[in-house]
Q: What sequence folds into this?
């Protein structure tokens, strides 16, 4: 036999990583989730959530007052009702950044240009995609919204979004707000531009979170 | 070779002594915490064996038309053997010409991590480890053929052998996906149970048909999806974190056998 295997290293026998199933908590809602999206081009997914989580773990989230989402409603500093969820609406970024709409696209193109040849080749193929085991690699903007209470690692409420205006599900909201009466909560919204499943720009977040009071 | 084996036998050394960088690298190689991602379950060793061979090209896997009996009896990995990898002129089928870039490609694309700088201690430690298992300088580059069109494989249903497929599944798929049909022992919570998750998932069962597991259309869809995942991994607009199996690492016949084993 031409190929004689002389030594099988122990590292080969232990050829798996560990189970990190504990992981971060999943979002309470995906709006609009990929498997229910009417528009196949705009959706969010657990894959995109993972990309945010990985970016956070790698300290790649950038505090930028212009490139991060700008909350419109509810008004920062206002009181949140515990039984009726508010309509949450935001601009995807600050008004001065809105004037440079081409910037993210240019940045993505620039990064693609700088990418290793292998990546460029793979992307150059961009095949027919006969079928997808997941919802497909996403291109576009997604947002990760969290309501947090100081001192708690797990968000009070968390949503992955492909939209900039939505109202949380009342049942999920009421469950999240249970026993939160009178508490001060902060809201963070991260924005990231995806290109075929990878974050190409961002995530961006406001330097200071928005603050709210939960009704007694 | 004996010296190499002896050196590697001491990988578990601890205590107050200074630990050689290569030893730290060996630990990192098998540690998913190389990536800061809290979701990642992969380590380098998940996809790459380090098998000392007489011939440096033995890690290229079986020839494209080979069946399981023609290859070595051990695990089938999507990534190449990293024995003698340091002094190759290129990696990733010739598309990466710096070892660090090749390592970072895996770290970013599959492990959800951030690219390591050349000065990062972990990069240095991994390099030192790989150097200890790379005695030949130079060593040859290895080809990597990405299968573009899967139609030919899908047509290989007739002669497929489920028994051989079970063997291939056990050596090539079970390490990450766990036991077929149950997922017992799978790597991480996000890894799919095959083939059930594929058949009943949103792609092959968009209407949430409770009878999808016996629905010919869903089964045919799952067959295509499994082939797509194996041949294209996360690439080609497919998503996920699964690496691809090139023609050098897994033959079309072997994949067809796995499909037969899974009842697809």
A:
């Amino acid at each position: 036999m031409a190929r004689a295997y002389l030594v099988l290293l122990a590292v080969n026998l232990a050829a798996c990583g560990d189970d990190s199933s504990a992981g971060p908590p999943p979002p309470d809602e995906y709006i609009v989730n990929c498997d229910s999206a009417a528009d196949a081009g705009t959706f969010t997914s657990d894959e995109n959530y993972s990309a945010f989580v990985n970016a956070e773990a790698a300290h790649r989230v950038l505090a930028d007052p212009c490139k991060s989402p700008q909350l419109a409603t509810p008004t920062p500093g206002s009181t949140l009702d515990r039984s009726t969820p508010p309509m949450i609406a935001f601009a995807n970024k600050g008004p001065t950044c809105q004037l440079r709409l081409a910037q993210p696209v240019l940045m993505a193109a620039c990064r693609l240009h700088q990418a290793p040849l292998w990546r460029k080749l793979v992307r150059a193929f961009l095949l027919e995609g006969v079928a997808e085991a997941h919802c497909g690699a996403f291109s576009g903007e997604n947002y990760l919204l969290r309501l947090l209470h100081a001192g708690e690692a797990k968000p009070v409420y968390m949503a992955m979004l492909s939209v900039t205006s939505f109202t949380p599900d009342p049942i999920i909201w009421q469950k999240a707000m249970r026993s939160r009466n009178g508490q001060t909560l902060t809201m963070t919204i991260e924005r990231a531009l995806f290109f075929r499943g990878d974050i190409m720009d961002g995530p961006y977040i406001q330097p200071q979170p928005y603050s709210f009071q939960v009704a007694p | 070779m004996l010296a190499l084996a002896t050196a590697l036998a001491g990988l578990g050394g601890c205590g107050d002594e200074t630990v050689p960088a290569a030893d730290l690298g060996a630990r990192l190689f098998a540690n998913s915490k190389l990536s800061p991602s809290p979701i990642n379950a992969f380590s380098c060793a998940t996809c790459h064996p380090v098998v000392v061979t007489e011939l440096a090209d033995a890690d290229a896997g079986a020839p494209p038309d080979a069946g399981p009996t023609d290859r070595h009896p051990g695990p089938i990995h999507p990534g190449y053997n990293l024995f003698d990898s340091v002094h190759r002129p290129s990696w990733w089928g010739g598309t990466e010409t710096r070892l660090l870039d090749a390592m970072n490609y895996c770290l970013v694309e599959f492990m959800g991590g951030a690219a390591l700088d050349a000065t990062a201690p972990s990069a240095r430690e991994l390099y030192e480890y790989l150097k200890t298992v790379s005695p030949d300088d130079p060593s040859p580059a290895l080809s990597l053929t990405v299968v573009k069109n899967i139609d030919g494989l899908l047509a290989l249903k007739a002669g497929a052998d489920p028994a051989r497929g079970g063997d291939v599944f056990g050596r090539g798929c079970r390490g990450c996906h766990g036991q077929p049909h149950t997922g017992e022992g799978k790597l991480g919570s996000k890894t799919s149970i095959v083939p059930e998750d594929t058949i009943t998932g949103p792609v092959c069962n968009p209407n949430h048909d409770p009878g999808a597991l016996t629905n010919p259309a869903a089964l045919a869809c799952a067959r295509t999806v499994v082939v797509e995942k194996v041949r294209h991994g996360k690439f080609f607009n497919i998503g996920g974190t699964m690496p691809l199996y090139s023609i050098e690492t897994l033959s079309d016949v072997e994949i067809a056998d796995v499909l037969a084993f899974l009842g697809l």
